[in-house]
Specification:
The protein has 15 helices and six strands. It has a four-stranded mixed beta sheet. A two-stranded antiparallel sheet has the order 5-6. The N and C termini lie far apart (about 60 Å).
Length: about 350
């Protein structure tokens, strides 16, 4: 591998999308073409979520720093350099912690994006990259660490820790809707009151007689999530959502928003998905769940996925209904979320006659 100083564009940390749509060389410039290019760039930016773009930009910035430290010329793409980079991620020197295989693969996705923005193509199947990555998988791959499921009784104890003010109404509705809908944290905070309320909406909610109907924008299209009414107002997600919308006076725009410092009014500012994670961890701590663990271990064990895992693990219905609610393409993915399922319900050993 040739080592030369300098990494062109290495200082850039903001996502670049302008190269995704440019005026074709065969077309003369005009007001109409310029308008189409601008619109195409807007669509290109909308193709990937803001969170993913930020993560990819951070991946590229880290890679650029690595290149500067080692005096590597990283443009055009050098598979040999990429191989050395992921090697250092898996087996770093000094006190830097090694990344998991999943994190390394995510970094590679970020580099593919970064090179594409700069007019290059990174071939992840090149032998210099693929062989090193295969070795990293073989030597360092571990089963994924599953987050603890928040089960119904856990959720009741968490809800009991919330205050009975506007902020408490919001967080109670957020937890119950997230659990009953099996929603990701980004899906929860991305909800709007009505269709097409805001440009950054990830979906909207409708309150019906029998429950709430949530329409979500997914990677492969739109899907609907039905949330039925609960058996008691204290744990009914639809009742909690209705109460929050009523007292916050929200009839347009984001559903889950920040509350003013004095706690008396809802602001127009949509909550970030990080609020969901912080809320879950705080409620877990306040409710005293898993007292056998240290505080640090409890915080690591619970996350936004704990709500989805809780629904998948506790809903006593046909598995296909849970799969549909969670928006999974396969039953196997749904089973990864089920923490309490009967693993030996079907005994093939006895069925075979042994």
């Amino acid at each position: 591998m040739t080592m030369q100083p300098g990494v062109p564009d290495g200082h850039q940390t903001e996502p670049e999308t302008e190269d995704s749509a440019r005026t074709p060389a065969s077309l003369p410039g005009s007001g109409t073409i310029d308008r189409l290019v601008e619109a195409a760039q807007d669509y290109a930016r909308a193709a990937t979520s803001d969170n993913t773009l930020r993560a990819y930009a951070q991946d590229w910035a880290h890679f650029a720093r690595w290149g500067r430290m080692h005096g590597a010329e990283l443009l055009p793409p050098s598979p040999e350099a990429i191989g050395l980079y992921i090697t250092e991620l898996a087996a770093p020197s000094g006190r830097t912690a090694a990344l998991s295989v999943a994190s390394i693969e995510r970094r590679l996705s970020g580099l593919c994006w970064g090179y594409a923005q700069r007019g290059f193509r990174l071939d992840r199947k090149d032998r210099h990259i693929a062989t090193v990555l295969a070795g990293i998988r073989r030597k360092h791959a571990r089963p994924p660490v599953q987050k603890e499921a928040i089960l119904p009784q856990d959720l009741r104890e968490m809800l009991a820790t919330l205050p009975h003010d506007l902020r408490g109404l919001r967080d109670r509705a957020l937890l119950l809707i997230g659990f009953a809908g099996g929603l990701r944290r980004s899906e929860i905070v991305g909800l709007d009151h009505g269709k097409d309320d805001t440009p950054d909406s990830g979906g909207w909610v409708q309150i019906l007689d029998d429950g709430a109907l949530i329409t979500l924008r997914g990677k492969t299209g739109w899907r609907e999530v039905e949330i039925g009414r609960g058996s008691a107002d204290q744990t009914c997600p639809v009742h909690a959502l209705t109460q929050w919308l009523h007292f916050s006076r929200i009839d347009f725009g984001p559903v889950f928003v920040a509350v003013s410092r004095d706690g008396r009014r809802a602001t127009p500012d949509r909550l970030s998905d990080r609020h969901v994670a912080r809320l879950i961890k705080q409620c877990v701590e306040d409710a005293g769940l898993r007292p056998d663990l240290s505080k640090a271990d409890r915080l690591r064990l619970y996350s936004g996925h704990s709500l989805r895992a809780g629904l998948a693990s506790s809903a006593e219905v046909d598995e296909r209904h849970v799969q549909k609610q969670l928006g999974h393409a396969s039953a196997e993915m749904t089973r990864r979320y089920q923490r309490r399922r009967d693993r030996f319900r079907v005994n093939l050993t006895k069925a075979a006659g042994l």
